[in-house]
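Intended use. Records like the one below are meant for learning the mapping from a protein sequence to its folded structure. Do not use them to infer anything beyond what is encoded.
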Amino acid sequence: MKKIVVYLFLFVFVLGCGNKDKGELIGVKGKRWHPEKPYGMSLVPGGAFIMGKSDDDIIDLQDAPPRTVTVRSFYMDETEITNSEYRQFINWVRDSIVRRRLAIRSVEVLGYDVNEDDERLDQGIGLFYPKGMLVSDDNADDEEFSYAKYIASGESRVYGNSLSDSYVGPEYYLPLDWDVELSYDQKDFDDYDRDYVEVIEEMIIPKEESFNGIKAWEVDQFEFEYTKWDFDGMTNFAEEINSGELKRSDFIEKYGVTVYPDTAVWLKDFKYSYNEPMFHTYFSHEAFGDYPVVGVTWEQADAFCQWRTIYKNSYQKQKNKQSVTTFRLPSEAEWEYAARGGIEGAAFPWGGPYAKNDRGCFLANFKPLRGNYAADQALYTVEADAYEPNDYNLYNMAGNVSEWVSSSYEASSYEISASFNPSVNDVNNPMKVIRGGSWKDVAYYLQVSTRDYEHADSARSFIGFRTVQDYLGTDVTANAATN
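Structure written out for the chain above:
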């Protein structure tokens, strides 16, 4: 017994001697963190402002009474999300689904006992065999690995994973191999085998449904799956969580959203109007690459934010860097604060009460002069960086396209929300706020204080969005110098 006590004492003594803190409280250091401005975003320094109608509410909605609120600092996209940027999201979703299906097909073709030296892995469908299932000398007799193969050999329902992985069954993950090149050009299909071609063709609309024999994607298969925390639920049931009646996992919500925009909005929004060219080309043609994406629902905009976070943090992880905070839709207060550009009491982002400058030129893309759409030099939308930015270097905070924000529409929102970082987002309310007015709206809807709304699952030819990201570190305030 004495020997055990002596050994224990020596063990503790040795550990104590190895400490470099000299017994002082020095804290635990994590990865180095250097604030980095996200690409394409501007910093909006936090501060207080008068939110709501500071002039006459000519429509008399009385849903935006003026009040002083304070918001924290955040980054905001300098422009609305463009067609080109949204296509990057769609292509990632498409490629993830294709790689997942190719991995499953390769397992079906090659089996579950493929050795890592198998020559079939160097060609055809074998190129996409999931590396995590390869048999090697290290795992050949591993019971857990054998169990994983057993799960994989069962029902092949494949679930999406927000970390760009997929898994078969509830426990076994199959990392996707992003290093193997994909090709969707039929000229290259000769370099692949029949299994590869069949997987691709499963995502193409049937020949009898194609237009003039043109092969096109079956876009309903482009679904992005992700999870989110139900923070409101966690707050409301905090006692049940602490007592163990409920688990944190009970408040993780899973979503599956088809991501392709509804290009038919150009036809559905305007009856008896010739808009077929926009229907055919606006999203897909590179001529409109730098124009704001439209035809996306609130759910699709929210899914884009989740993907952007995942995509960036995947890179951060590869570089062993600290993860970034979530990209998200702005709250209604954040959007209005950013749109004002630091100018108090102004009707428009440029400050003045008029939609023209002193030379008679229109300052935004909207419906001027009783419907003379071309008077502002644009019939529909314009490039996302058209016109002059406001003082926070944000473009088209008035006009071009209305923008989804995270907040639900309540006529009494300003009266019931907090005065700091106000946000009213009722999950049971499907009406979401849109801000800024669009190319088809009159000047009233371009005012920074005007509120409008649309159903969360609605897609329109005049609604787009931009994202924000929380600023970390010592808060930057726009009006600190005046305090």
